[in-house]
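Chapter summary example.
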Amino acid sequence: MRDKNKPPTPGGGAASKPTLISETKRLLVKQALKRGLVRESELQKPAAGPDGAVVFDPTKIVEELNLWRQSDKPKYFRPIRGGQEWVVVNESDVRRALRLRGVFSSHEPGQAFSQADRVIEFVSDNRIVDFSGRFAGYKAGVHYVRGTGRRFVALTSYNLIEPIEGDWSMLRGLFEGMMRTTEADQTEYFYAWLKVAIEALRSESKRGGHALILVGEINSGKSLVQDRVITPLLGGRQGDPESYLKGTTDFNADLFSAEHIAVQELKSGTDLQSRAYLAEQLKKFVSTSGHSFKPKGIDAILMFPFWRISVSINREQMRMLPALTLGLVDKILLFKIDRRPMPMPTRTDEERAAFLEEIARELPAFVHFLLNWNVPPALRKSPDADRFGFDSFIHSELADESFEQEPEAQLLRMIDEEIFDADDPQPKPFWGWKSAHELAETLTVSARFEETAKKLFRYNNTCGILLRRLKEKFPQRFEWRHSKRANEWLIHRLAE
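The structure predicted for these 496 residues follows.
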């Protein structure tokens, strides 16, 4: 005789009789199957233990639903749309999904916990993530933070355009009209920049790339290419770094959620300090090193996003760009963009809509071209080419224009006209070895340049900084050595 104080054994004795709870479960499952809310194969079937007793194992149903829980709150995550997107759900949503698969929240007589309780407990013990969001370069799913044991959920994926062999002649005409100048054909550098980026995204690599800077007239197509070509090809997500580049905020969630960082108007200053700050910020988007990210509720961590930054500006904003120093020139593509007629009419709203539709239609064929095109050897000449897949590029006209507006250009003019005066009956072949301070003193007492020199050398170290920049650009004219007395310079006269 069975002990009356002992709970009934699952699968035998009095428990084998249908109870109101078990009959309700059976009817709910039958209705779910009939309405197509769940398939027979998805139903959780309890297994038998060694003694024949029914044992519920939550592992299978948890893996089928791919359920995860946030560490600091009852917030759950699961994939939808075939894993292309993840959603945030609460515990009630989880229990509803379990009911549809035959796992209920009500417990059988004599059981302290229901099967759904055991699922919730299993997830809380074994499937924990620390934060969630949208992250550049990460497909939807659970990922580890590099170098730590922390896990996070990327809620969405970047959506790459699949390649289709076909015609992209209109796009080719657009790019060649904008980027093929009399001085240089920049189109191949543009193709190389996109190719390296797309291949990195397809392989889920975090490979870095140059900062692309487009300089041209208003309505020359710069923003059009950013919005309608670059952003779709890099996964469809675009971020605006304006506040970050101005120094008013740190990296934020908006930037971490977009592969394409697009600047369409510079609002930084033209002073040396503002331009130097902009240079450092651009380098961070180019770098593949970690960037500090502060999720809510936990300490800041290093994340490794995939970024490509493009900047489109008018010629007047050239004064805001950083100086083209050795620390920057190998990290940028500086394009001159010509304003030419678009390859399709765009006068009316209807014509413009047709033009934009044609751009979108040709993108798959353009992607096919990029993936099957090889970067020419002519674009891979420097020792640094392997870093980003090809060499940096600076349009010669923009390089000259950039230098002419730099303070070191002012210093060079003063050196050539004052130190190496063409009217001197006995012209000196060189000046030096002397310190930057001595050069500044010579120029500030000059009759011709006193006012200009005093304005230029407002700070004690300015002359030395500008001499170092001139050495980078004209190494054959400027030599430097360190002595016990000071850092000394030797400056050669400009060769006739």
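To summarize the output: The two ends are 118 Å apart (CA to CA).
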